[in-house]
Design a protein that fits this description.
It contains five helices and seven strands.
């Protein structure tokens, strides 16, 4: 489990500290700070800023942040709070693999990937909903498979 934010702790040569984040611009934000000895969670601090749904979910997950990092259960559902918390936990487990890497997803309409992803996290779970919210995939349609891939990944429908 490597992270660009990981550092070695001076208290123990085996303890690694790392932080992982996910959020919606000017809305909800989740940050997980971990101290790990191998894959074992030594300490975990899960913080969130946002709506009641996110704060309640974070409060429910906090007691489960112990034991083996790989054994943590991912929250289920399609609400934005679940999607953000799932992202943070997958990043911590080293399993976050966002399906589209370019900054701009829709070249015809100059729609950034981040805008499409935020629409999906906010509740646009069909390509048509994403198109209405962002204008992505409303011209030539070549980005539609990428929109579908992001929707499927966010909702846990992919095979990864």
């Amino acid at each position: 489990m490597a992270s660009p934010n990981a550092t070695n702790s001076s208290a123990s040569a085996n303890v690694e500290k790392a932080e992982f984040e996910a959020g919606l611009m000017a809305r909800d934000h989740v940050r997980l700070s971990l101290s790990l000895d191998g894959d074992q969670i030594v300490s975990a601090h899960l913080r969130a800023v946002g709506c009641g749904e996110l704060l309640n979910l974070v409060a429910a997950i906090r007691p489960q942040l112990r034991g083996n990092l790989g054994d943590l259960l991912l929250p289920e559902g399609s609400g934005h709070a679940v999607l953000l918390l799932r992202e943070v936990l997958l990043k911590a487990q080293g399993r976050w693999s966002f399906p589209y890497q370019e900054e701009e997803l829709c070249h015809c309409r100059a729609v950034p990937t981040k805008k499409v992803d935020e629409a999906i996290v906010s509740g646009c779970h069909t390509p048509e909903d994403v198109s209405r919210a962002t204008r992505a995939s409303t011209s030539c349609g070549t980005c539609r498979p990428d929109v579908n891939a992001i929707i499927n990944y966010r909702l846990g429908r992919d095979s990864k």
